[in-house]
Specification:
The protein is mostly helical. It has 18 helices and 5 strands. It folds into 2 domains: 111 residues, no CATH class; 282 residues, no CATH class.
Length: 407
């Protein structure tokens, strides 16, 4: 499919990082290898042809340049892992390395040019397919932060949730989320515990015939609830309905990323609302736990902790929206932006800065998580499956969503 223009090369680099990371999936059969080589080569050719004519980054705040350089180094690391595993053709690897190093060289040329914008923010809007420059965004930002201002740092999870999550629990939780939260039928992605999470840029990925998702072996069950369930469960459900595309089902172009992440955040809102209603979901999730763990934590303790945790996570996501609005609309330098974010959100400096840094090198991405799920709710959509399915079509970008919901 044709993707929206990405106005700076740093956005292109995320696409390249995603294809590189997928050389490291566990189920690496011949069909997956063939498809992945094609997708990767097409991506490198595209970036090799376009990037020299683009600004490397949207603006030149020193913190953005530093973060962009760090991301480029991580992308080189992914390339090295793929080469070490002999999963990438030597000629393509050399071309990939050259593309990344050229990008890093262009960043060095920008040192000392602090505060210069190199692309039009309107182009960022057009890329994501969500309007971040309209007059309503400040009202949305303030409404979202006010709504969540009472959310406090959650208490420590029950002791039994602090032990490592098991592979069996990850699989059972996925099935419970599909059935009891998404009200969807059974599918069978490959979930597994991964001892080397640094191999991955995205933990979830399509292979030729199914989807797979790595869960870091450092995750406790509490971590799994915080970072994976239901967020990555929504991703896997979305990828399943795009599976006819094989490895190419998802490429991590920003127009795709913005929509898939909004669907995943909608699932977080959905699980929070279900837990607040106490409609039996907590008991269903509790039933998936290992027997010894079930004895140590009650469904009600699990429910209360998940509500605390998930509400505070929503507050942190809103801080990313604030950071992007202050950066893109008001063009504040990083330090001033963090200070204003603290004042608006009421977060500590540690939390406000951490959320601002998460996607600072990709202006706009932090905002679309919150703007996207809000747009779904405004459309009357409260279930992720309904968000990406419309009359037999699986939607993968906001541009497609707008076309389907134009009436």
């Amino acid at each position: 499919m044709k993707h929206a223009n990405q106005p700076a090369a740093i956005y292109d680099l995320t696409t390249l990082a995603s294809t590189l990371a997928r050389h490291n999936v566990r189920e690496f059969d011949g069909k997956t290898a063939e498809q992945l080589s094609q997708v990767h080569e097409e991506t490198v050719d595209l970036l090799d042809g376009e990037s020299p004519h683009k600004a490397p980054v949207p603006h030149t705040d020193p913190e953005l340049l530093k973060a962009a350089a760090s991301f480029a180094q991580k992308t080189l690391h992914l390339l090295q892992i793929a080469e070490d595993q002999k999963r990438i053709i030597r000629g393509i690897a050399a071309k990939t390395r050259s593309t990344i190093e050229r990008f890093m060289g262009s960043l060095k040329l920008l040192e000392g040019t602090s505060g210069v914008w190199l692309c039009d923010p309107v182009e960022i809007d057009e890329m994501f397919g969500l309007n971040m420059s309209n007059e309503h965004i400040n009202a949305t930002m303030l409404e979202e932060t006010k709504k969540l201002s009472g959310a406090s740092v959650p208490n420590k999870p029950p002791q039994s949730l602090q032990a490592a999550v098991t592979e069996g629990e990850t699989q059972c939780l996925f099935k419970a989320v599909r059935k009891d939260l998404f009200s969807a039928g059974t599918i069978d992605p490959q979930l597994y515990i991964e001892a080397r999470p640094e191999k991955h840029y995205l933990f979830w990925a399509p292979t030729a015939d199914k989807q797979e998702c790595a869960v870091p072996d450092s995750y406790s069950l509490a971590d799994h609830f915080r970072f994976h369930c239901p967020h990555n469960d929504a991703h896997l459900s979305h990828l399943h309905d795009l599976s006819s595309h094989g490895v190419g089902a998802y490429t991590d172009f920003m127009d795709e990323r913005a929509f898939l992440e909004a669907i995943a955040v909608l699932s977080e809102w959905q699980i929070l609302e279900a837990l607040k209603k106490d409609d039996g979901l907590a008991a269903s999730l509790h039933d998936t736990l290992e027997p010894d763990r079930r004895k140590q934590v009650s469904p009600e303790s699990l429910r209360r902790w998940m509500i605390e945790m998930r509400t505070y996570e929503c507050r942190l996501r809103a801080a990313r929206l604030v950071a992007d609005v202050l950066t893109i609309q008001e063009r504040l330098p990083f330090e001033e932006m963090v200070g204003r974010s603290m004042a608006i959100t009421g977060l500590t400096r540690e939390d406000a800065e951490a959320e601002a840094r998460k996607y600072y090198f990709l202006p706009g991405l932090g905002a679309v998580y919150t703007l996207g799920y809000r747009k779904m709710l405004d459309q009357g959509i409260s279930n992720p499956i309904a968000g990406f399915q419309d009359n037999g079509t699986t939607i993968r970008t906001w541009h497609q969503f707008h076309a389907h919901h134009a009436s």
